[in-house]
Amino acid sequence: MIWAALTVTFYSITAYGDKYISAKLTCTPEEYTFFVSLVTVFWLALCLPFTGWRLGMDRYCIFFLVCLVVWKVLEFYTTAILLRHMEPYELKAWLGINMILSYGINLWEGKSSFRVSILILALCLLTGIWLILTDKKRASGGMGKYIAVCLLYIVSKFMYGLQMGKMARYGNSVSILILVLLIVALIQLPRLPRRKLPAGKEMTGVILSRLTNAAGLMTEAEAAASNIFFYTLIQPLQLFVLFVACLITGRPMSRKKRAGSILCVAAVLLSSMALL
Fold this sequence. Notes:
mainly alpha
């Protein structure tokens, strides 16, 4: 359980670090993608003496690497855009849809049986997301464009996870991540706007947020190896922790948004436990 608890802690800190980079430093999607990728590579490289470098190359591996780069760029861009207008827990609530999608794929492949309870919880999750979306403070602006970016975020996360699983036969996760994120960072170089880049305390915040991300990647692997039950609960527990943190810090929240948020958190937690 300790590994899962550490992972939730590290990833929750990272989520606020992402919010800091995107909203506080007002980084463009290109800047956000570059900083997040490059600094994460730095911390992951320090882990190589413990994990080793293992990555076999053939044409299928190269194809999957290209796909991972595409999905990771899309994930970072959408994250940078969304975190300017939403709290970190809201972003995690959207990821609950991926859990339902995974369940649907397992149904299609005959790996799971149909459960009415999961369908009800999926409807609760979608209802909660809709309540948050239609909150009066978010009503102004292009709702359609906002939803489109959220859906792109979900697709990028889902496809990245799916193809990362297929890459496991070619090497360890640290080696794959270093190569993918390094390519992502290099792609952003020509696209970086010409302005003064973060430095001093601002850059320290960026570096520390990636340290917790790298640490979370390590403890997540340990959690998966030690206890699959607690590993499965990492995502819903992180959503719960981020929501509680939002309440404790007194972030403005209407009754409608609060109700939708509680519905999302409950639906994701119960769905995770039901699918074990």
